[in-house]
Write a structure and sequence with these properties.
Layout: H1 2-24, E1 31-36, E2 42-47, E3 51-56, E4 59-68, E5 71-75, E6 80-84, E7 87-91, E8 98-108
């Protein structure tokens, strides 16, 4: 009985921490776009001034770059994100390129 109360308290704590972590990675005034690729991969990009935060299944990555007339290119020296309109391409060493990824959701914070 005592163990069940501890497990319930731990579960509540983990759920609360997860809810906070889900909101902590965004900044006020940023634009968040979720992308889905033809191969099934999904990733989310938070567009900030001069850089982006890329969230994939492998983690969160800070990429710097520049906006161009047709979109933007962002990199950390290993990962390259090219985005234009509602499409994006993601290139990473050792993994196949994710091309023709389409925006599936946008949020302005």
């Amino acid at each position: 009985m005592h163990l069940n109360r501890h497990l319930a308290a731990l579960s509540a704590l983990l759920i609360g921490a997860g809810a906070l972590a889900g909101t902590a990675w965004t900044s006020e005034g940023s634009r968040v776009v979720s992308y889905t690729c033809p191969g099934g991969e999904q990733f989310t990009v938070e567009y900030l001034d001069g850089h982006v935060r890329l969230r994939t299944g492998a983690g969160i990555f800070a990429l710097t770059g520049e906006k161009t007339a047709g979109g933007g290119k962002y990199s950390d020296g290993y990962t390259l994100l090219s985005a234009s309109g509602d499409q994006a391409t993601l290139e990473r060493p050792g993994l196949p390129d994710s091309q023709a990824c389409r925006a599936t959701g946008k949020t302005s914070l």
